[in-house]
Design goal:
Its EC number is 2.4.1.80. It holds the Pfam family Glyco_transf_21. There is one protein chain. Helices cover about 45% and strands about 15% of the residues. It is of the alpha/beta class. The longest helix has 23 residues.
């Protein structure tokens, strides 16, 4: 156990404590299309989305995806687009049924309209730091097709929030980093940066609409073709405005089922 803890702490420092190096001003930046699938509004949604308008990265577009034209998230997105007119942001309303996965159905139009070589799929509850996108792009080297973030939690008040942060900072992170270290596909799709060309070679995002665990199968398709995936040094800051014991327990249940699915898939 002592040896395992030592190796785990070494790998954690190696993966999550990389020193951020700002790029020279003359650097040629690759563009990133950011897909934000939305459904409904929670108390933190506005501030979460606003962090994407304030990122310190010179070349990106925001593509917001809403399934229903009555969704209250539409008004919130439009207010942010008016507040930050210099940011390239578009709103897509209406899903296309390409499979059983509602998230991919919601994002289909936006993905087809994406103009840049890299695509970042980011869930509604994610909060970004100004340099997070740059950090993810720094890890996107020539042999890598997918950069993802280890799940963590932003600071919030209340017992449930504290419990959630302890879990993601201890048990979950240990499992996640250990799986990454021994090259088990641990990719979760809450915040994932991908090479669009590699995804398009598989037929695009719609190809994975037949899976509910689209994140696992996207990563598997990349690694099966010889591409590598990486965790960047900044974790995904989950900042949902709904945080209680019941919802936390439900997340643990889904997490358990997800890891059980991976185990059964690997055995098969």
């Amino acid at each position: 156990m002592i040896v395992f803890n030592t190796l785990f702490n070494f790998y954690r420092k190696y993966r999550l404590h990389s020193k951020f190096t700002p790029q020279p001003s003359e650097t040629c930046y690759s563009g990133v299309s950011i897909l934000k699938p939305l459904m409904g509004v929670d108390p933190n949604l506005f501030t979460n989305l606003e962090t994407f308008f304030n990122m310190n990265y010179p070349k990106y577009e925001l593509l917001f995806c809403v399934e229903e034209d009555t969704d209250p998230a539409i008004m919130l997105v439009k207010s942010l687009m008016e507040k930050y007119p210099k940011i390239d942001a578009k709103l897509f309303i209406g899903a296309t049924i390409v499979g059983v996965n509602p998230k991919i159905n919601n994002m289909h139009h936006a993905y087809e309209a994406a103009v840049y070589d890299f695509v970042l799929i980011s869930d509604s509850g994610i909060r970004m730091k100004e340099d997070t996108l740059q950090d993810m792009m720094n890890h996107m080297t020539d042999k890598i097709a997918l950069v993802h973030q280890m799940p963590f939690s932003a600071d919030r008040s209340g017992f449930a929030a504290a419990l959630e942060k302890i879990y993601f900072g201890t048990a979950q992170s240990r499992i996640y980093l250990t799986a990454d270290c021994i090259k088990i596909n641990c990719h979760t799709g809450m915040s994932a940066l991908m090479r669009k060309s590699v995804l398009d070679e598989e037929g695009g995002l719609k190809t994975f609409g037949c899976y509910l665990a689209e994140d696992f199968f996207i990563a598997k398709s990349f690694t099966d073709r010889g591409w590598k995936i990486r965790i960047c040094s900044q974790p995904a800051m989950q900042n949902s405005g709904i945080c209680d014991i019941h919802s936390f327990q439900s997340r643990l249940t889904r997490s358990y089922e997800w890891w059980k699915f991976i185990g059964l898939f690997l055995v098969a």
